[in-house]
Amino acid sequence: MNLLSSGSRGRARIALSSVCVLAIVLGGGALSASASPVSAGQGAGKALPSQSFRDIQQVAVSSAVTAARATGEPVPVEGMITPTEQTLAMPDGTMQYEASSLPVRVEQDGDWVPVDTTLTPVGEWLEPIASAAPVRFSPGGTDQLAQVQAESGEWITETWPYGILPTPTVEGDTATYAEVLPGVDLKMVATKTGQASIYVVKTEKAAQSAKLDGLHVVVEDAELRTDSTGTVTADAGGESRIVAGQPLWWDSSEGGTYREPGGEAPPLPVSHEVETDRVLMDVGDSVAKHEKRDGEITYPIFVDPDWSSGITASWYTDAAYPNQSYLSAGASDVLRVGIYQQYRSDMFFQFPIGALAGKVVTSARLNTTQLAVASSGAGAIQVHTYGIKPAGFTWAQEQAWNAAGTGGWSAPLQAPWYGPGLGSAPMAVGWNVTTGVQAKVGASAIQFAFTYTSSSLPSRRHYSRAATLIVSYNTLPNTPTAPMFTSPSRACGTAAAPAVVGQTNVAVAVNQTDPDGGSVGTNFYLAKAGNLGALVQTLGSGLAAGGTKTVTFTGLVDGETYAWRGRGQDTTHHGTGYSEWCYFTVDTTKPAVPVVEAPTGASYVVGTGIPLSVTGASDVAGYVYWVTPTQLVSPAPPVPADGTVSVAAALPNCATTVTNSVRWACKTGSGATTVTVAPTDSLSTVWVSAYDKAGNQSAPTGHPLYPGGNTGTPAAAANLDAGHAWQLTTMSSPLPEAIPDSNPWIGANAIDLMIPATASTTTTDLPDFPVASPVLSTNVATAGYEITSLAAPVDASQSFSFSLWVKPAHVAPMPQIIAIQRGPGIGTMQLQITSTGKYAFCLGEEYVNMSNTARDNNCVTGGTVVPSTWQMVTGIWDAANQQLRLHIGNSITPVAVNGHVNGSGDRTASGRLMFAPGPDSLRFIGLITNPVMVPGVVDHAQLARLAAFELPFTD
Fold first, then answer.
1. Rounded Cα gap, residues 474 and 660, in angstroms
2. DSSP label at residue 580
3. DSSP code of 934?
4. By three-state DSSP, how is residue 527 classified?
5. Whole-number mean pLDDT of the chain?
6. Which distant-in-sequence residues (6+ apart) come within 8 Å of 160 by Cβ?
7. Strand partners of residue 199
8. How does DSSP assign 141-159, residue by residue?
9. Residue 422 pLDDT greater than 80, yes or no
């Protein structure tokens, strides 16, 4: 009998559970245990977790495909190998699945090695060198006969109930225990699927012994029962099951050995009864029945209850013994098929094919070995698919199903095979089973039936139980995902709302993958939206590794609406499906110049916003607009670079985009769109350009930001009288510790500027050459003693202007902070000198500098710092125009501009204004005079007054 195990420890044990059952010794024979017994419609569970094949496929298969192409040899896919199954990447890019009816490999120390059932001492047991089924045999001197390891890791024991076992003789895979009963030897054989236990009954007297009327071993911790085929199943607890076929016996006639019967007769049934913990075999009764029917018996005889390997199985049926199951994975290696005298046999193989679900099978071959031709004649055999029925069924069951039309026979899978004649040598025989496997894709298992072609044409053949199903398959490429336009950059549109492109040559792309990880491409199909059935262009991306696939449709017609979609393609097959249709309209026409209008009677004040209505053509998507500190001119200036829309690029986000010198507005419905701008000087102009959904952009149009466009009536200057100034050039040395506010209109809101005791009050210089005047010196400032205002001069969240004269001592390798205003919130205002010798006017958080790009935490950077030279530097935060501007000297044209928005939180910077703050590494070193900080935006006249060392307030 045979003992079937769930496999070696770790991955090998788990893997084997998908193709064989775990065996323990039962009733003088063996049990085989598995996660569950095989039943009709039940197939193989994979060794890997259920999602592993999907999860690892892209990476593992791709790696194997790459290696196969590089080496020109098949490469096993990592993680898709078990003792009986493996998936190979082939050099031609296809995949190959192989399932063996017996284990052929086992994992040891992280490597797969061939199965080797040679017994060797391991501790207190005899164990096979490399077995996919963890079993071990007794070394004698105990009543423990054998053990098998369950998936839980526990060893299940079968006990010899007739006393202490002798020390066995070991030869190869067999341990022989001599005279375990009078005239009876017991051979324990390590097999590829577990173990076989075979009783060698050497004499007729021994066969008639009373002890052989109920020959058995005791199975511990298992409850036995039988199923419809006579298979014995034992519940070993939890999900573990143990399965055994009906016991068999044969004699020594015609060269029979403990491994195989001689001659053509199949093994004979053993009379037996199943109890809860044992199978009782009546050897004497079995022998007597045979003698009465067929005559003499040649001793020794061999008794072996055959045990099913479960999910991957091989068996045969025989008309001479219609109720006997010949499911076996023991020492026997013979399957019988064909006709000889009273013997008529069909043979069957079962393999797991769950791994082929969703695959396209291109070829399938069942490789078998014909061991002998026991009787030759005109009869041929052919192969079919069958069932699925419970593995190990009998001739009687097979005939009953055939009579009822429920056997599930397919048409022959290939032409009948006659083969060589009687006495021919063993030979490999391959069977083309492609159509059979193709028909069963999606099932968890497949059964193949081999039968004779005619009941009147004898031919009896023996085949090995070791067979291999080799399936070449292709997995259809996945449906493309993420369809998009790459030039121009657009998202896909729908039939109701097509995307719009401004080019007649359009590049499109999808993400294309293949489950097999090999080379894959995408075919792109273009049609007019009004007739999707008539393709205009069909383009292929070519085959390469999975990823982005792109093509360019050319020669498209302006004004036409099209749709495109993609479908995967590998070396042999189209993909599983198409991507969705992606609709688009070609529009290469620029929109008309928009119309800009101001409210009737609008008031124009520098820095104060004015709502303007902008009206454009129906296909306009949005507007870009900007303000120049100059009067309306013709022709219009070009659109600034950061306001240029390209038909080849993605459209700007008109709802949120802020750039350096322009602003954006989305078109509002079909009516006018309101934009708010403010004059930046007495004669300034707003320029507006429209762009459509295709990225076509109109020429800009200008609108004067002064009444009636009359240069004689300029915009009013902002009233700066709530601001603060400290006009040192009108003072004498030494300076007082508290420098008074120079604004004559400020009254009780005046703010003094405090000079700490550690700072100089006597430093003078020539900012207003050639007149010498006192100045603020930061050359000896100490942290904590900076020159500081007693309160915040402005609310930094609103528009303001900050101006002062500076004379830097040098450009330091680190940024230098000339002045900072900060408060308890997160907002700060800073004027800095960068390490590159530029000025930077910043709004944002505490550590804002020129490298920051967030629009609520950034700087406007420009001008050139000239050490040891007086320069007037003015920073303007124009909240109405969402712009930071930097001026050097008295020019109203800024040296740099940058877009800015108020961020969340407190941005008022409501603390004191501080000059040359610490730490020392960031402290500005140099001279300062005439700092001015006012709410509002200064115009050119006010800027000129500051440059002339005058105050910007009302006269």
1. 54
2. P
3. E
4. strand
5. 88
6. 138, 143, 144, 145, 180, 217
7. 186, 303
8. SSSEEEEEE-TTSPEEEEE
9. yes
- Distance of alpha carbon 58 from alpha carbon 80, whole angstroms: 12
* 547-553 and 531-540 beta bridge pairing: unpaired
β-partners of residue 361 are: 473
Q: Position 25: which residue type? A: V
pTM of the model: 0.68
Pairing of strands 111-114, 105-108: antiparallel
| Distance from C-alpha of 234 to C-alpha of 255, rounded to nearest angstrom | 35
Q: Rounded CA gap, 386 and 381, in Å?
A: 15
Residue 330's identity, in one-letter code, is G
Give the integer Cα–Cα distance in Å for 652 and 662: 12
99: Cα separation from own chain's centroid: 28
Token pair for 388: 């699925």
Q: Do β-strands 771-774 and 883-888 pair in parallel, antiparallel, or remain unpaired?
A: unpaired
> In angstroms, rounded to a whole number, what is the distance separating the alpha carbons of residues 317 and 327?
9
Quote the tokens at residue 186. Answer: 């017991």
Phi, psi (deg, nearest 5) at residue 205: -60, -45
Instruction: Say how many CA atoms lie within 13 Å of 151 toward its Cβ.
Output: 25
CA–CA dist 628, 633 (Å, integer): 11
Radius of gyration of the CA atoms of the chain, in A: 47
- Which DSSP letter does residue 60 get? I
Q: What is the rounded distance in angstroms from the CA atom of residue 955 to the CA atom of residue 523? A: 77
93 confidence band (pLDDT: 50, 70, 90)? confident
Q: What is the pLDDT of residues 174-211, one digit of tens each?
A: 999 999 999 999 999 998 888 888 999 999 999 888 88
Tokens representing 290 are 């045979």
> Which tokens in the block code for residue 63?
């790696």
Mean pLDDT is lowest, of 150-164, 518-532, 578-592, 712-726, for 150-164
